[in-house]
TrEMBL record:
<comment type="similarity">
    <text>Belongs to the glycosyltransferase 15 family.</text>
</comment>
<keyword id="KW-0328">Glycosyltransferase</keyword>
<dbReference type="Pfam" id="PF01793">
    <property type="entry name" value="Glyco_transf_15"/>
</dbReference>
<dbReference type="GO" id="GO:0000026">
    <property type="term" value="F:alpha-1,2-mannosyltransferase activity"/>
</dbReference>
<dbReference type="GO" id="GO:0000032">
    <property type="term" value="P:cell wall mannoprotein biosynthetic process"/>
</dbReference>
<keyword id="KW-0808">Transferase</keyword>
<keyword id="KW-0812">Transmembrane</keyword>
<dbReference type="GO" id="GO:0016020">
    <property type="term" value="C:membrane"/>
</dbReference>
<keyword id="KW-0735">Signal-anchor</keyword>
<dbReference type="GO" id="GO:0006487">
    <property type="term" value="P:protein N-linked glycosylation"/>
</dbReference>
<feature type="region of interest" description="Disordered">
    <location>
        <begin position="493"/>
        <end position="512"/>
    </location>
</feature>
<dbReference type="GO" id="GO:0005794">
    <property type="term" value="C:Golgi apparatus"/>
</dbReference>
<protein>
    <recommendedName>
        <fullName>Mannosyltransferase</fullName>
    </recommendedName>
</protein>
<dbReference type="InterPro" id="IPR002685">
    <property type="entry name" value="Glyco_trans_15"/>
</dbReference>
<feature type="active site" description="Nucleophile">
    <location>
        <position position="324"/>
    </location>
</feature>
<dbReference type="InterPro" id="IPR029044">
    <property type="entry name" value="Nucleotide-diphossugar_trans"/>
</dbReference>
Length: 512
């Protein structure tokens, strides 16, 4: 099976992503299975913390998330917790989180200027109409002003808060999230040693109607500042500019080589029909005529495309930023802040419903290489209805509580957690450490909206960068191949296909 075919819809239905290894020189899990956290915890701590943005009313959800993360990770490593709110935290909130944390707890208030839009004061009618319009159009969370405030804050000001700015690393945690696996190493330390700057555990497609013009403004920023794009940008865009030739317009919807060969096989018989009809109509085979008639009948169909810029189109993939482990200087850098300021000036954070997830993701795509981004495939995680929970590696170790663990769960719950899922056998695809997946778990890796298959394809060692192809040379030679086939098959081209050898010859011939 050719490399591209491994990631086709049909191939993914036969072997889902959760049953495939994802490992390459660019990215792989830091540990498949368990380490001894009592040994790992002797390493020096990084300048890092968990960061939670929450209201006082969300205390139950915050404590639930803390219990899960303390039990599965922080009981051994004791990193601090930072809590941010656009209002002052209540004494009840402070007391309850302190009862759970094995590390220090800190509290910060978000200044009004960092939370509210300037337009909420200077042009409240515009702001209100923009929010209400999104509600009328049923855009998810679009009619909630505080949601726009939150997304804007996370996109541009979160990293500048005095409590966060002094960190080298942060781990973002939301209320009401669940963790399913033990993390027995320090992810901040591993990312530092491996040269990673951004880590995710869920990658999915964004809702199109929430970001109708985000990619337009992002491309304008790239042009204005002459941003040199690296290989990470390919995770967020479909490329349509890899075929150069007089007929390239007919291939503008093609984004991978497998579909290119299919399109070429459809068009070559039409070229043959057009070329030979004027010379000797009797030489036109029926298959070529059928192709030409089919094409003519479809010419009036209208296809609606998303905005395309310089041969690229936003594919809607993004890292789900309700979980992210990252370097703060990625987002406090001058280049990212220029990007945020450019987006801010467009008013898209309230006129549209730009989430911080696509903004963070496009920023990472512009300013990082693929090798600087890490997929925490070994971390089981769920937010809302979407979750990832890996199978357990064969390499398990007995659970040992940390010295500062506050036993946040009832003993019956602890016994249930200790009864973790059966590890896969040697040779199976399992990377987790003592994972306990819910009985009703639906793996997001296998969802049609997941972008993990694209991540696996782009980071694979076997993948070769796509070269620009000379379409004129390829079509001319493919036409010769088709005509040779007709001579050998009594002018019947109905079963003509490009062989593997044909494709290799054409790709070599057409490389620019």
């Amino acid at each position: 099976m050719e490399f591209e075919d491994r990631f086709s819809k049909q191939a993914l239905q036969k072997v889902p992503m959760s049953e495939r290894p994802i490992e390459s020189a660019k990215d792989a899990v830091f540990e498949s299975g368990c380490r001894d956290p009592l040994i790992e915890s002797k390493n020096p701590r990084m300048n890092a913390a968990f960061v939670v943005l929450a209201r006082n009313s969300e205390i139950d959800g915050v404590v639930s998330s803390m219990k899960s993360l303390e039990r599965h990770f922080n009981q051994w490593f004791n990193y601090p917790w930072i809590f941010l709110n656009n209002e002052r935290f209540s004494q009840e909130f402070k007391k309850k989180v302190a009862q759970v944390s094995s590390g220090p707890v800190r509290f910060g208030t978000v200044p009004e200027a960092r939370w509210n839009f300037e337009e909420q004061q200077t042009n409240p009618v515009l702001f209100k109409e923009a929010i209400e319009s999104q509600g009328d159009r049923e855009i998810m969370y679009g009619n909630t002003g505080s949601y726009h405030n939150m997304c804007r804050f996370y996109s541009g000001y979160f990293f500048k808060h005095p409590l966060v700015r002094k960190l080298d690393w942060y781990w973002r945690v939301e209320p009401d999230v669940d963790f399913y696996c033990d993390l027995t190493y320090d992810p901040f330390l591993e990312m530092q040693m491996q040269g990673k700057k951004y880590g995710f555990t869920v990658a999915i497609k964004e809702l199109v109607n929430t970001v109708p013009n985000l990619f337009r403004y992002t491309n304008a920023f790239i042009k204005k500042h002459d941003v040199p794009l690296s290989d990470a940008w390919e995770f967020f865009v479909d490329r349509f500019d890899v075929y150069k030739g007089q007929n390239s317009e007919h291939y503008k919807s093609i984004t991978n080589i497998r579909d290119f060969w299919k399109k070429l096989e459809e068009r070559v018989p039409m070229y043959h029909a057009l070329q030979t009809a004027g010379e000797d109509a009797a030489r036109v085979d029926q298959h070529s005529l059928n192709r030409l008639v089919d094409h003519s009948n479809k010419r009036g169909l209208h296809t609606v495309n998303k905005d395309r810029f310089d041969g690229t189109e936003y594919n809607m993939c993004h890292f789900w930023s309700n979980f992210e482990i990252a370097r703060t200087d990625l987002f406090t850098s001058e280049q990212y802040q220029q990007y945020f300021d450019y987006l801010e000036s467009s008013q898209g954070f309230f006129i549209e419903r730009w989430g911080d997830a696509p903004v963070h993701s496009l920023g990472a795509g512009m300013f990082l290489n693929l090798s600087e981004i890490h997929y925490f495939r070994d971390i089981g995680y769920k937010h809302s209805t979407l979750g990832h929970c890996p199978k357990n590696s064969p390499h398990q170790l007995p659970y040992k509580p940390g010295s500062r663990y506050k036993n946040v769960y009832h003993e019956d719950d602890e016994r249930n957690l200790a009864n973790y899922d059966r590890p896969v056998s040697d040779g199976g695809v399992g990377v987790g450490c003592r994972c306990k997946c819910p009985a009703d778990h639906a793996e997001i890796e296998n969802s049609g909206g997941s972008c993990v298959a694209l991540w696996a394809k782009l980071t694979a060692d076997e993948r070769e960068p796509r070269a620009t192809l000379d379409l004129d040379a390829i079509e001319a030679r493919a036409l010769e191949m088709y005509e040779q086939y007709l001579e050998q098959h009594d002018n019947d081209g109905s079963k003509w296909k490009l062989s593997t050898a044909d494709r290799e010859e054409l790709e070599k011939l057409g490389s620019l």
